[in-house]
Design goal:
With about 220 residues, the chain is α+β, with helices and mostly antiparallel strands. About 30% of the residues lie in helices and about 25% in strands. It contains eight helices and seven strands. It has helices at about 20, 30-35, 40-50, 95-105, 135, 165-170, 185-190, 200-215, and strands at about 55-60, 65-70, 80, 85-90, 105-115, 120-130, 150-160. It has a seven-stranded antiparallel beta sheet, with helices on one face. The termini are far apart.
């Protein structure tokens, strides 16, 4: 397909109801149904303790969806009890997309990832933004306390199989791509908006971003 040509969907090939959807697939197997739990068992808790990275899915009141990454040293997400997690909110770009969405719609979906593991842990629940001092102090890194925590009341927990990670070869060094094959973050943004400056100025902007990373990580 030519990405410069607008794509239009043929209504004849649109799946519009669940019956039509399920008719395309074999019934799910028993283990896929059995695995869903309403609390964090010992293996799920261990997975959370080992994970340095998650993605959180949220939704705005008007239906717009968003997925945002969160990362820190392993164990950065606190298991407060078998039905409650707390995620520290570290400094970012202050768009506050996920946080604003939670205020509008507290339903969230989390996927926890551990480097080298092909399986992932999925958690769904209801989120609340919390500023409890003792909780925030327990999440300090380099003596810097997060402004708030996302506390998630868990409603569904299950392990997700390895197929996606194995298809993508995500952890296989033989499939790693060279970051230099694409421009820097700043250049990508400027190329797509106002236009990137000359090389010397571009280098200065890239260096400034790296300096900001070092100073504002926490």
């Amino acid at each position: 397909m030519d990405a410069t040509t607008p794509y239009s969907i043929d209504p004849a090939h649109v799946i519009a109801d669940e019956a039509a959807l399920r008719g395309l697939f074999e019934p799910t197997h028993a283990l896929a149904l059995q695995k869903c739990q309403d609390r964090l068992g010992r293996h799920a808790q261990d997975f959370v303790h080992r994970s340095p990275f998650l993605c959180i899915g949220t939704q705005h009141r008007d239906g717009r969806a968003d997925v945002s990454p969160r990362g820190d040293p392993p164990g950065f997400v606190k298991v407060l009890d078998e039905r409650t997690l707390a995620i520290p909110d570290r400094p970012g770009n202050n768009r506050l997309d996920s946080l604003s969405n939670i205020l509008a719609n507290p339903s969230v979906g989390l996927i926890f990832i551990i480097p080298g593991y092909d399986e992932t842990l999925r958690v769904n629940g209801q989120a609340t933004l919390v500023t409890e001092p003792s909780l925030l102090r327990s999440m300090a890194v380099q003596d810097r306390i997060p402004t708030l925590a996302i506390v998630v009341r868990v409603t569904e927990v299950f392990m997700h199989c390895a197929k996606a990670f194995r298809r993508s070869h995500l952890w296989d060094p033989a499939h790693f791509q060279n970051r230099r094959d694409m421009p820097s973050l700043v250049k990508i943004i400027l190329d797509e908006t106002t236009g990137a400056p000359a090389e010397a100025e571009m280098r200065r902007l890239d260096d400034a971003l790296e300096d900001a990373y070092r100073k504002t990580m926490y």
